[in-house]
Design a protein that fits this description.
This is Cbb3-type cytochrome c oxidase subunit 3. By secondary structure, the protein is mainly α. The protein contains two helices and no strands.
């Protein structure tokens, strides 16, 4: 028995696969168990910035030539 797959069938199967992946990813992202992991990951871009030691007045520059 030979099954001939048309382009429409292949595209339909591709659409189903992408839709299932989308639903799975959406459920994974909005899972409440992952909230602490995502809260930590949300701060990663700021991890390499040094923390200020003290809050001081901004330095001023002279406007004299």
């Amino acid at each position: 028995m030979v099954i001939e797959m048309s382009a429409g069938l292949i595209r339909g199967l591709g659409t189903v696969v992408v839709f299932v992946a989308f639903v799975g990813l959406t459920l994974w992202v909005f899972n409440r168990k992952r909230t602490p992991e995502f809260a930590e990951a949300r701060l990663l871009p700021f991890a390499d910035e040094p923390l200020p030691e003290t809050i001081s007045a901004p330095e001023t520059r002279s406007t004299r030539p």
